[in-house]
Each structure stands twice: as C-alpha cells, then as structure tokens.
Amino acid sequence: MIKKILTVILLLGTISVLAQLKLIEPSRPNINLNSTTINISGTPADVDLEFALSVINVSSQSYTVKCRRTEVDVQTNTKNATCWVLCPPDADAEDFPVFVVGQNGVEYSEFIASGDTVVGFSAKHKPNSEDGCSLYLYEFFDDADPLVTLASVFGRF
Hints:
By secondary structure, this protein is mainly beta. It is 11% helix and 47% strand. It has 1 helix and 13 strands, in the order αβββββββββββββ. A hairpin with a 7-residue loop joins β5 (79-83) and β6 (91-92). The two termini are 18 Å apart.
C-alpha cells in the first residue's frame, strides 16, 4: 500500500512538469484541478457517486487523448465506471486495476486541438453498501506516446 502511494506521488511529480491539459469542473471553470484530489462524499447506501470534468488543451499543439484509470486503494465489492467519449459498463473493483477507458478491446480517444475544450469525462463509483473510501487515479495521456501524461487527477469516493 505505502509502496503504491509512493510510486503514485513520484509519478505525479513528473506529471506536473509535463502538464499540457487543464482539468476543470464545469461549475468552477477558473480552478485547474490537474494534480489534485477531488473528494466526493456519500454514504454506503448511495447508488452512484460521481464527478465530471472538462478537459482543456492549454498547449500549442493538438493531441489525441486517452484516459487511464488506476485503482490506487479501492474497497472490495464496489463498482466503478470511467466515461471518456462513451461510458463502458460498470467494472467490479480489482477486476481491472489499471484500465485504459474503452470497451470490447477498443480504447476510446478524443482529439483536442490547441485551445479547445472537451466535455464528457465522468468518474463514477458505486459503493454497493460498502463503508469506506476508494481512491482512483485518472491520467489523460497522448495516444501517440502513452508514457506522456498530459494531466491527472485523483478521485476519492
């Protein structure tokens, strides 16, 4: 567990230098959420907990962007879905610890020109009556070079 957290912290240090995308909540457009943690509170009885983001290309070049979801520390018996372009079916916790958003072997991508904004990202968590927190890392990366993370955000449900 501590090893996972240290690895993620080291990755974020590298990521923040490379950030080419701005992540915002539609209701708070002046706050860049890149390299932060979004906390979504709820109860074990909640059916869905979720947050949505808009992705803005603040660089001078265009990118074809994909989204990778990593389960950093999740409650067993919960479900999650990450919507990017389309929403794949819910996945059981720990079935896909690292997942490039897509369905049936097709990874979803979105072309974002310099200065453009894309809406349509949402992170969903279903507690399924389980008490506790689940932490995910969402990374937006360049399809041409999956090692180049353009922006990232943690989601804690």
